[in-house]
Amino acid sequence: MQIVEVDRLSYAYSGNLVLNDISFTIDEGDILGIIGPNGAGKTTLFSCMLGLHDDYTGTIKILGEDIKKKKNNKIFKSIGYIPQKKTVEQSFPATVEEIVSLGLRVGEKTAKEKITLALETVGLLAQKDRRVGELSGGQQQRVLIAKAMVNDPRLLILDEPATGIDLEMQNRFYSLLKKLNQENKITIILASHDLDAVNRFATSVACINRSMFFHGKTYEFFENPDLLKAYSESSMQAHMHLHNYRG
Amino acid sequence: MVLEALEFGFLQRAIIAGVSVAITSSVIGLFLVLRRNSLFGDALSHAAFGGIAIGLVTNVYPLWTGLILSVLGAVGITKLRQSAKIPADATVAILLSSGLALGILLISLSGGFTLDLFSFLFGSILLVSIEDTLAILTMTGIIIAIIILLYRQLVYITFDEEQAQVSGLPISKLNYLFVILSSVAVIVSMRLVGILLVSSLLVIPNVTALLFNKGFRKTALISVLISIFSVVTGITISYVANLAPAGTIVLVSVAAFLTVLTARYYLKKKQAVKKLEEARS
Known about the structure:
The structure holds two protein chains of two kinds.
Chain A: E1 2-13, E2 16-27, E3 31-35, H1 42-49, E4 57-62, E5 65-66, E6 79-82, H2 96-101, H3 111-121, H4 137-149, E7 155-159, H5 167-183, E8 187-191, H6 195-201, E9 204-209, E10 211-217, H7 218-222, H8 225-246
Helix pairs in contact in A: 3-4
Chain B: H1 2-5, H2 9-34, H3 40-58, H4 62-84, H5 88-109, H6 115-122, H7 130-149, H8 151-159, H9 161-166, H10 171-193, H11 198-210, H12 216-241, H13 245-280
Helix pairs in contact in B: 2-7, 2-10, 2-11, 2-12, 3-4, 3-5, 3-6, 3-10, 4-5, 4-10, 6-10, 7-10, 11-12, 11-13, 12-13
């Protein structure tokens, strides 16, 4: 079953075309790695998929439903979203348990059990009474995953989740994602700059730079030197463009 | 002397209304402080000042006109923030100055400051009537009931509005509801400390409570307790020493803040020394 179908998606911001005619699908149980240079439109793509932008053209279907046509927000309750890493302010007065409980549906009866299970899954049960701002960046990301988990998501969207986390924590983090995918049958979409991580964990790859550059199986991308070379060159160009723009 | 004084009806009403206001203002204030909107209360109270002036000039019960203008102002600047993307602090400045300007204009037209106006500016907790006390208790009950009912949603939008929106929460409606609740809380608090000091009740107990480094519920509870302590102690001291109640209440809460801040500083220092010694041994 296709859990996500994006068809001819285009989105412009202040007259600039940020996404141009993007089409792809994701099968249930897949891990899709989305790669692309800075400013390629990865976060904008997620914003469209999550209903944060609705002034796009084309269609986005999640679980078979057009997210624009659906008036109620039930589809989004099947999605867990981990935004691009923002460290929680140290003074924010919420414990790990309190943050995870935010993911529960209103009036949930099995709240305690679900929170305990989610914290066990991400390996943070022992930290449940600690303030979330006191945890490391990697632990905070796992708290957000636990928050998404209590809602029993079918799709998990992560926007560069491992940025700024040390290598060991990154490996643990990606292993956790793999476990969620295999044991909990959660489909995962992951935007990342880390080609090595995408190569190791994703089952398919979408490479975008405002428009779709490549979409296919992971091995098709990483075993093709021409594609890798073209990707590196386009990333370098985007980097230079950003550098010139800033400089 | 204090216990004897408690037999007086006016002091009983002051304590009951004061405790009620303490609960409301600290609960609403925690969300405002965490959303970096500490001065929002000030803006609402100044908008209410314009409304109170309308009430005094037109002989309509001033608290109602104050409430109406405060709610309209709150909803207006929320709309302005959302649609025109104007920074939050700038919208606060717009509301604050326009409310104050309207009030000054109307008062100058009606011949200057009156005793009534002074009681709104500086508070008049010792003058609250039975009707006032009942009105304050009712409004407190409504605000607290709504906060309890929407607790998780309000904490979620305070923690991360974008994630709350993605999870399907009606962010816009929740924001409008919250600013209306804030307006009501400000009007309720004005009776206690006056327009000029309202934001102190919203902010100081919460900033003090945050120093305890606890979770959300515990922080809210500590804030309520500090607020109640400040109000009751402030009213008592002001009665015994014949001081202005509003100023005394606020200064007690400032003293509580400084005490906790100092205690925390020394406690942290002590802990750091202990850790160093443990590491050495």
